[in-house]
Design a protein that fits this description.
Layout (H helix, E strand, L loop, with lengths): L1 E5 L6 H10 L13 E5 L12 H17 L5 E4 L2 H5 L9 H17 L4 H6 L6 H7 L5 H12 L3 E2 L2 E3 L2 E3 L6 H6 L7 H17 L12 E2 L9 E2 L4 E2 L17 E2 L10 E3 L4 H7 L15 E6 L2 E6 L7 E3 L15 E2 L4 E2 L4
Parallel strand pairs: 1-2, 2-3, 3-4, 6-11, 9-10, 11-14
Antiparallel strand pairs: 1-15, 5-6, 7-8, 12-13, 12-14, 15-16
Helix pairs in contact: 2-7, 4-6
């Protein structure tokens, strides 16, 4: 088997298939070849400008459905914050109510208008930007799909391969301690995180899915969402301290990652990494399409393009919507380097 991870597929359905096809992972029917196991790193919804909203809503559902049509022996689907939002921040919206909220949010966000009235009418979301931009491509049918995949165990919080932990946004030692998971190895941590998710889904009878203390959905009362599906690595010297408060957090110091195993994550592109970790980054413009690494050695941290053998974090979100499909790299999980194209 070839074990491959693909970063956040927030892009047209045809682009997603084109990337897999270009790496010779598909058969003549545009299904995965029998010798391929694919890990999708989470976030299957929401991309593009407002004028593409309807198409993007269809694309996200098509990509997630395509993945789920394969067996769990061939496809592992990780849960991202955009996926979870369908059963958290957006749990109470039907299509009509969301479209009305979206129109109102677009006006507030685009015009820079006062949003106090919007917040009062929509306390289940943190602000107008969340509806206008972050989760703009919502449909109720997406929530139904996410719900079904959660209840059937197809959406996972974590996976592992050859000692590498795969999670959407990264987990720190303190996150794991909060739910009594020992940071001993990638397999044990993945099993513990998935058992936590399964227990919460089993207890879920309606409304928003509760994954506290690992995840806190955004809301008017609490502000932006926080936790292991939202947080991003940062240099504490360059970030507002309140974003590192927690867990759950918006940001984490990568020196707090477990040392016993490396992690591969999605959720953050190169440009955001450079913004949050400027002192640890090489000079030059942001680059989409490429895998990247974060090396941690004691108190020293180094961020770089490519897959460093000693990396504590491997970054797989290469901006699928923002780069030509032939330039989008996939992660060869066995070799821990970009998958070689044929």
């Amino acid at each position: 088997m070839r074990y491959v991870a693909i970063g956040d597929p927030q892009a047209p359905y045809d682009t997603f298939l084109s990337i897999l096809r270009g790496h010779a992972l598909l058969d003549g029917s545009d299904r995965l070849r029998d010798d391929v196991h694919l890990v999708s790193m989470g976030d299957h919804f929401d991309y593009g400008p407002p004028e593409r909203r309807e198409m993007a809503a269809t694309d996200g559902e098509a990509i997630l459905s395509w993945l789920a049509e394969h067996s769990s022996e061939q496809v592992t689907i990780l849960l991202g914050n955009h996926d979870l939002a369908r059963v958290c921040e957006l749990a109470d919206y039907d299509d009509e109510a969301f479209l009305a909220a979206y129109a109102e949010a677009r006006f507030v966000y685009d015009q820079g208008a006062d949003e106090s009235a919007f917040r009062a009418r929509h306390p289940q979301v943190p602000d107008a930007e969340c509806v206008a931009r972050d989760y703009s491509c919502f449909r109720a049918s997406q929530r139904e799909l996410v719900t079904r995949l959660l209840r059937t165990g197809r959406l996972r919080m974590a996976a592992h391969h050859a000692g590498l932990l795969l999670v959407h946004a990264g987990v720190t030692a303190e996150d794991l301690a909060a739910v009594s998971i020992e940071a001993s190895g990638a397999a044990a941590v993945a099993d513990g995180l998935n058992a936590f998710l399964d227990a919460r889904v089993a207890a879920w009878t309606g409304g928003a899915l509760d994954l506290a203390p690992l995840h806190r959905a955004g809301s008017g009362a609490h502000g932006e969402g926080r936790g292991v599906l939202y947080q991003r690595p940062c240099d504490p010297a360059s970030e507002h301290p309140g974003r590192l408060d927690g867990p759950p957090r918006r940001r984490f110091d990568p020196r707090s990652l477990p040392a016993a195993f490396p992690q591969a994550i999605g959720h953050i592109r190169d440009g955001k990494c450079r913004q949050l970790m400027p002192a640890w980054c090489p000079s030059g413009p942001a680059v989409d399409g490429a895998l990247r690494s974060l090396v941690v050695s004691g108190q020293d941290v180094r961020y770089q393009l490519g897959c460093a053998p000693e990396a504590r974090l491997l970054f797989t979100d290469a901006g699928m919507w923002h780069v030509a499909s032939e330039r989008y790299e996939l992660l060869d999980l066995a070799a821990r380097r970009p998958l070689t194209r044929p």
